[in-house]
Structure formats: structure tokens, C-alpha cells
Amino acid sequence: MRYLKDLTEGKPLRVLWNFSIPMFISVIFQQLYNIADSVIAGKFAGEDALAAVGASYPITMIFMAIAIGSNIGCAVVISQLYGAKQYGKMKTAILTTLLSSAVLSLLLTGLGLAGTRGLMDMIHTPANIFEEGAVYLRIYIAGFLFLYLYNVGTGVFTSLGDSKTPLYFLIGSSLGNIVLDYLFVAVFQWGVPGVAWATFLAQGVACVLALLTLYWKIRQIQTGEKTLFFSFEMLKKISAIAVPSILQQSFVSVGNIFIQSLINGFGSSVIAGYSAAIKLNTFAITSFTTLGNGISSFTAQNLGAGKLGRIRDGLFAGIRIGVLVALPFVFCFFGIGKSMMGLFLEDGSVEAMQTGVEFLRIVSPFYLVISMKLAADGVLRGTGKMKMFMVSTFTDLILRVILAYLFAYFGGVTEIWLSWPIGWTIAMVLSVGFAWKVIKDTRY
Fold this sequence. Notes:
Distance between the termini: 29 Å
Shape: globular
Largest sheet: none
Number of helices: 18
Structural class: mainly alpha
Low-confidence stretches: none
Strand content: under 5%
Mean pLDDT: 84
């Protein structure tokens, strides 16, 4: 099985780095088209269009959170089975994941389409951007099946040590999305709906091609065991990891909705500035999260293979890689934040520009902190310690939401951004402490 990668052999730093490089490149292209949505909307459709896309962003992240949580759940279980060389059960886990994901995504699509306007009302979307924001959200939700299955497929590829195949599809999807963005918005003048349709079409094509490739690769795996199309027992094992991950990701997104609702009270210019800055911030955080997912696969494979000492080495290697990845983001966002915001906004958007630059300068130095937390989270997920993982993550979430409202009440918009560094720092201490406890409690 030359197209799969065994993460239980070789020096952990080199193995993890080589495994993570394609995943980091994937993040670059994924965030490239996310940022392109906002750049093209802001440049060719105006500040209100940028605000309309940004206003619905926390809601779209709830749907993304469910997809990512499912990705994590299936990846951990499949990695453990692959590491233990239980290929029959591994194939059953893959098929069970895909079938249950398809059913759940269709159910959520129906609920989302029925509740679009209610969700926009819930976050107090300003009247001048409400209708466009609702249209964007409705088209996004209509394509959720593609988004969900693509993310689950990516989780399966990475759990088998294949981080390159998803990269190829993501590069094609990202470039296609950018071309369609420009065509629909700048040329056809479709405005906000054009941004949404570009994402819908690009994600759909990538999903179909990824699933076909995954099917072909799975068929090449020879097993002496019977493969079940669906297994409730396997679904239970996957859910034990996936449900806490979905809850964690979803609650983070719900927390972001509370913060977005708070930001929406300051007007469309502040919304536009925050929307641009949070897209840049998401670029960085997604990079660290991707590394954490790689550490989860590394940890799970080595746990399945019984090579427990490598888990500790993987954590140290992950922290080192995380710091190296964080430094360029700190330089760009703290040092040249105004130039970065200039990608989204025209020179006349003074308040929006100031909002985004202040956010980036306050938050970006703490990327060094959050990268350490997410590396430790990778170990916790890979070893199945979901309670510890959820405690540290919910601590971060609850602190950020509460502090954001307190700082807004006693200060203003700028003070709200301080909730990020405080929440991240406390959660990092918890995650690293928990991960180290898990490592020490493991008998080598």
C-alpha cells in the first residue's frame, strides 16, 4: 500500500513535519479562497457586501464545526485500526462514517434552510446587510452536503497517512473558487450571491472527485476479513470521539456567534473591519488546528501500534513545528497589519481599517500560545482523552465570551479583543498540563 503512510516509523519530528507539509499547503489554499471571497466582495461589491458575507460567517462556522468534528472522530478511530493493521475493521469504519455523514448532512441542510432568517435575526444583523447576508447563508447551507462529505473524506485520507491526495483536490477547488468569484462578482456583477455560488460549485466538484478517489484507494486494500457496509458498533466507537469534537467545535462557533452579535451592535463599518481581520485570524488558527489534527493521527497510529514512547516525542515535535508556523503570522499581522487589511478594504474605509488592525495587533502575538494548546489537544484526541480536551476548550470559549461582553460594557470595541489572549493563555496551560499527565500516566 505505497500510497499510505505509516506514522509509527522514523524520527517523530521528521515524520510529523513531512506528513504536515501537504496539510499546511492545503490550509493555504483553503484560506486563500476564503479570503478571496471577502477580498472580491469588498473590492468589487463594496463595504456592505463584505459586511454581509462576514455577518453570516459565525453561522457558517457552526456547519463547518460539525464537519470538522466528524473529520476528527473518524480519523482517530481509523488511524488506530490502521496502526494495529486491522484493515477489515478499518474499511468498515470508513464506510460507516461516510453513510452516517451523508444522512446527518442532509438532515442539517433541511434544518438550516428552514431557519436561515431566524439565525440572521438571532445575531442582530443590521437591516442594511440583512437580505444579502441571508441569501449568502442560504446558498452556503444548500451546499453543506458537499462540504461535510469532503471534510470527512479528508479525515479518512489523513488517518491513512495520505496528506497529499486531499491537497491536490483542495488546490483545484481553491483556484476554481477564486476564478468563479471573480467571474460572478467582478464580471457578471452578481454581488454577494455570486460569492456564495462560487463556493458551492467549487466545493461540489472537489467533493465528488475526492470521494471517487477514496473509493478507488479503499478497494486496493486487501483484507482477509468481511467488510461491513455499516456497523452500529463501529458508529458508537467513532461517535465517542466525534460527538465531543463536534460539540467542542460547535460551542466554539456558538461562542463566536455571541461575539458577532456583540460586534454587530457597533455598525457595518466595524463589522466589515472585524470580518476582514477574523478571516486573517482564521488562516492562522486553521494552520495550528491542522497541525493538531496531524498530531492526532500520529498519536492514534502509534497508540494502535503500541509504540507509546513516540507519543511524547510527537508532542514535543508538534510544539516546535507550531512555533515555527506561528512566527510568520505574527510578523505579518502585527508588523504589517495595515497592509494585510488593505487586501480587503479601500483607503476610505477608515473605521473598518482601524478596527481590523487593532484586532490583529492585539491577538497575533499570542499565536505562539494557541499553537501550543492545539498541539497538546492533538495528543488528547489521539489518545481518546476527550473529557480533558473539552475542559480546556470550553474554558477558553467561556472566558472569551464573558470577557468580551464585560470589556465591551466597561470599554469599547478595542477592549473586546483582549478576551482572545486571556482565554488562549489559560486554556493552553490546561491543555499542555493534561497532555503531559496523559503521557506520564502511560506505561512505556
